[in-house]
Specification:
The protein is an alpha+beta fold. It has 9 helices and 13 strands. Helix 1 packs parallel to helix 4 and helix 8 packs across helix 9. InterPro entries: Arylamine_N-AcTrfase, Papain-like_cys_pep_sf.
């Protein structure tokens, strides 16, 4: 059995898992499902201007000890390092987030490619409400179910002879492209560039939006600025957040994130209050 660092053992134990005697897909499925259900995807540290170090000690403290979650460069680093330490064949991959647009996007999303028993899988514990909760086969055109969602991975060869892949989610009976990636060799140094852009650039999505989500087999709960959405097998419910107190309660009750009221007030005023007041005025 592999000997893990204290940080990785802390992460593994917190998810209620034990190190497998040998690599198996069943363990990866459990790891990914429990991770995205337990550790929220969110932009809180970004919008609060906090430091976001990517070393394992800092990630273990933030995710496991303090329960604060984070975004892709944090989530997928933790998952990647655990799988690598357990003897899995994993590759760090950087992707361009497209959200169904034909744009020249930078590589600002980190994911993991797993090779196991002759098959390749995409592992992503850090894409929020649209992300999969289980490994996806890297088989082009195969419709795959992951929790409440359906996905497919497509591939094509560019004019330069590079094989590119796209992860797509099914929405309204059509496939919506989430991100595109290739299988080039990337390192933590490459991640630092995308990470810096994602939490420091004035136009970065995470800098300009309050985003939080968790998901499991039965539900996807997500907050984006003033809108809270709950998706279950019975349908979708959307409600607007109308006060700092409501925001504080929602973060605690649904996402297990405890914030002082003064912090919730700051977040409400910055991302919700002005929009909510303007909408109320339009209704009058």
């Amino acid at each position: 059995m592999k000997t893990l660092s204290p940080e990785l053992q802390h992460y593994l134990t917190d998810l209620g898992l034990a190190a497998p005697h040998q690599p198996s897909l069943a363990f990866v499925q459990q790891l990914q499902g429990r991770h995205v259900a337990c550790h929220s995807f969110n932009s809180l540290s970004v919008v609060l201007g906090e430091g976001l170090p990517l070393d394992l000690a800092s990630l273990s403290d933030k995710f496991v000890t303090r329960g604060l979650g984070g975004y892709c460069f944090e989530h997928n680093k933790l998952t990647f390092e655990l799988l690598a330490a357990l003897g899995y064949e994993v590759q760090l991959v950087l992707a361009r987030v497209l959200n169904n647009r034909d744009i020249n996007a930078p590589r600002t999303h980190r994911v993991t490619l797993l090779t196991l028993d002759g098959s390749r899988y995409l592992i992503d514990t850090g894409f929020g409400a649209n992300g999969p909760i289980s490994p996806l086969q890297l088989t082009s055109g195969l419709r795959q179910t992951s929790g409440l969602d359906h996905y497919q991975v497509t591939s094509h060869e560019t004019c330069f002879g590079v094989r590119e892949y796209e992860l797509q989610i099914e929405k309204d009976q059509a496939f919506f492209t989430l991100y595109r990636f290739d299988l080039a060799t990337y390192s933590d140094a490459d991640c630092e560039l995308g990470h810096f852009y994602s939490h420091k650039h004035p136009h970065a999505v995470f800098v300009n939006n309050l985003m939080v989500s968790v998901k499991d087999q039965q539900r996807t709960a997500s907050l984006q600025n003033e809108n809270f959405k709950m998706v279950t097998r019975d349908g979708t419910q959307i409600q607007q957040i109308e006060s700092a107190e409501a925001l504080q309660s929602l973060l605690a009750d649904v996402f297990s994130i405890a914030l002082e009221l003064v912090v919730a007030e700051h977040l409400f005023d910055r991302f919700i209050g002005a929009k909510w007041i303007a909408e109320k005025r339009r209704e009058q």
